[in-house]
Design goal:
Helices cover 71% and strands 0% of the residues. It contains 2 helices and no strands. It is rod-shaped, with a radius of gyration of 34 Å.
């Protein structure tokens, strides 16, 4: 007795298609994740660059208290 239509029992092509589809889906998801992380990295780098700069120069910050302390007879 011969087996009935062995082509329908061969999972090869179907499994290959599922693996390809899954691989494409996973690759696309990873690419999106990498893009999102890259954008976050750039945003954090800009934030660090902005926060590393002082709001005022040292001279400008020091001028006010020194102006106040300069004439001690006015205290």
């Amino acid at each position: 007795m011969e087996p009935a239509d062995t082509r329908s029992l061969d999972p090869g092509p179907t499994v290959d298609r599922v693996i390809d589809a899954t691989t494409q889906v996973v690759a696309h998801a990873l690419e999106e994740r990498i893009e999102k992380l890259t954008k976050e990295k750039l945003a954090l780098a800009e934030k660090i660059a902005r926060s590393a700069q002082p709001l005022r120069s040292f001279e400008l910050s020091l001028r006010t208290p020194l102006t106040f302390l300069a004439p001690p007879w006015k205290l």
